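Q: How would the structure tokens look for this protein?
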Amino acid sequence: MRGTVEPQSDAQVFQAERPRLTGLAYRMLGSMADAEDVVSEAWLRFSAATPGTVARPAAWLTTVTSRLAIDRIRAQQRRREDYVGPWLPEPVPTPGAASAVGRPPEDPAERAELSESLTLGFLVVLDHLGPTERAVFLLADVFGEPYDDIASAVGRSPEACRQIASRARRRVREERGASHAADEALLTDLVTAIGMGDVQGLISLLADEVVLTSDGGADRHAARRPVVGVDRVARFLVNLGARVPAGAVLGIEEVNSAPALVVRAPSGDIVLTADGDASGRVCAVRMVLNPDKLGGLDRHPDLA
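A: Here is the predicted structure in token form.
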């Protein structure tokens, strides 16, 4: 006689869904603290629901998390008006992250796409989408949710969601282009040239229209506007390398599912990531120096 399968408790259901919900909220918000707040609020609402009224817990939690994240984006936009300098997403260590959204992706291309959707370059593009557009695109293209469920989450019809997803997909494709997170070999070459103060070596690695963006917030010195062009970016990076303080610990680590240079120093940490173009040269450099965004570098959040 087969044993009976005990139904899962609300807490067990939520814990099973938590990495996916956190991954969704983080991609929408670019902030792990905000993402965790949203997911915690979703849990409070789930645990307070009348027993037996939630027929499909995963879909219910996705809907609530999406709506809370949309509200949080609108609050973020008001805070951004006072932000000093360029804004970049919070870097998140991701060894082994993006390994499961409902189930582990079996297709290597699907796994690569899921990891790419966590990179800082991809999150910067997502940040250019409106709140609803961002939610629909992520739910449809990254998390593979059916359009009926997406419609419930954002309060639009399924057909409207298909149209929103199509527009968002086209915009992401246009802005992201052929760029992709730099692999470890390209990033290592870039870091080596910076460390050697090799301007010509850097110029050979950088695309002509390369853009460097640095986010220091209000408390760290950083370029207040993007640095554009191969010569200016090369000299900026050489000057930066010359100012790395004694005692700093440098290493290439996996951050946002891509290699990143992580500098740990008493004066403040730095995370540097790069994107490569179709020719294999660096087309974008992003540096996060804001201490408010670097407190979680030694954490390993459980997110899909």
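The chain has two domains: 10-176, 180-293.

Confidence is low (pLDDT under 50) at residues 98-104.

Upvote if useful.
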